[in-house]
Amino acid sequence: MKHPFLKDAEERFRKSLSVCNEELAGLHAGRATPALVENVKVNYYGVPTPLKQLAVITAPQSNLLVIKPYDPASAGEIHKAILKANLGLGVQSDGKVVRATVPPLSEERRKQLVARAKDICEQAKIAMRNVRRDINKRVE
After folding, report:
1. Do 100 and 82 form a contact (C-beta atoms < 8 A)?
2. From the centroid of its chain, how far is CA 135?
3. Which of 2, 19, 135, 139 is paired with 91 by a 20 to 30 Å CA distance?
4. CA 31 to chain centroid
5. What's 22's DSSP letter?
6. Which is nearest to 52 in space by CA: 43, 61, 42?
7. Cα(129)–Cα(8) distance, rounded to whole angstroms?
8. What are residue 93's DSSP bridge partners?
9. What is the C-alpha separation between 138 and 19, in angstroms, rounded?
10. Element holding 99 (H helix, E strand)
11. pTM to 2 decimals?
12. Structural domain spans, the chain
């Protein structure tokens, strides 16, 4: 039987790690993946909603994402939300379907992605360090 402190610590470590993994999945390395945009918040009837709940996101080509909203009227809001997220994607909308083109990586963009990945990992390390410190305080 595990001690309650250990259960709590394990759960909090898993949460920190899963947040880190989700954020790292959102970085693109020259390939279009649905994870790039699935957590973008779209203003859907006044409620910020993750894009993955509003549309089917597919990657038919290595540099293209096709986003088909369940409600075609929300295509405009999806278009605006992706542009506002500043992901560096070329976004086009025909009123029913939104297409996002992933540009090839430049040297500058690679450096930005590396810096962002380091920042994401550093935040996860800090969160885990805080969990460990909290558990140690409770044990003492």
Report:
1. yes
2. 29
3. 19
4. 15
5. H
6. 42
7. 14
8. 98
9. 24
10. strand 98-101
11. 0.65
12. 1-29+106-140, 31-104
